[in-house]
Write a structure and sequence with these properties.
about 35% helix; 12 strands
Amino acid sequence: MKLFYGEINDNQVIIDNEEQTHIVKVLRMRSGEEIFVTDGKGNLAKGNLVFEGKKVSLDVKEIKENLPNFSPKLHIAIAPTKNIDRIEFFVEKATEMGIAEITILQTEKTERKNLNIDKLRKQSIAASKQSLRFHFPVINDLTKFSDFFKEVNSENTFVAHCNENLERIDLKMLRQAQHDNPIDKGENITFLIGPEGDFSDKEIQLLAEKGVKAVSLGSQRLRTETAGVFVAAWNYAENLIG
């Protein structure tokens, strides 16, 4: 399947401008070739390429709407790493494994205060197309912990921290709990992943007071981006198991 990004409204499909350039100048595709276009919102169009000068359009043959998505949806709020390549790696891999939403979280110990969110969004779109996803993840702007904390729904929210002196649920136990008491369809599971150096004691205490449950990701200490990928893989496996 040759999958591209664009807008789908009723029976009209508009291929994204950058995608058009890629089709013409990089892939050197020809008129009449079959492609698929998704809007990243669960809709998929199939058709044949039509070239009109420098413009590329789609002769639509079929449109499928509201294709299934992962459920429950996974939202990871993660602190940016000092080396931006690591957070970019996380975004790419988590996207491939079906994550629904990513919030870049500014915590007390976050060293990186600025990052290119638009670049992360473009990377998530590229990863979505590569992995044949028809629902693209939402990539939120850099958000202060204090602001994110106000919106936390403790019912389905978990924090992964490294403080061994505080009670933490083993992720394996959480998996069993999810099977015994499955989360309602359409709801999110949210995981908070701290920065290099972990969440501060104050932040962990605030989350605990809010009713957010702490989880352990195993006996080894994982880097920020590794912890994020680990949780994304856990959720991906849960969806495969059903």
